[in-house]
Amino acid sequence: VGVRGSDIVVLGVEKRSALKLQDERTVNKICMLDEHVCLAFAGLSADARVLVNKARIECQSHRLTVEDAVSIEYITRYIAGVQQKYTQSGGVRPFGISTLIMGFDSDKVPKLYQTDPSGVYSAWKANAIGRSSKTVREFLEKNYKEDMDRAETIKLAIRSLLEVVQTGAKNIEIAIMGKDSVIQRLGLTEIETVVAEIEAENEKEKEKSKPSTSQQ
Amino acid sequence: METLFGITGKDFVITAYDSKAVASITLMKIGEDKSRELNSHSLMLFSGEPGDGVHFSEYIERNIKLYGIRNGIELSPKAVASFARRELADSLRSRKPYSVNLLIAGFDVKTNRPALYWLDHLASMVDVPFAAHGYGAYYCLSLLDRYHREDITEEEGIKLLQKCIGELRSRMILNMPDFVAKVVNKDGIRIVQI
Question: Which Pfam family is an annotated match for this chain, by its short name (chain B) (predicted)?
Answer without folding.
Answer: Proteasome
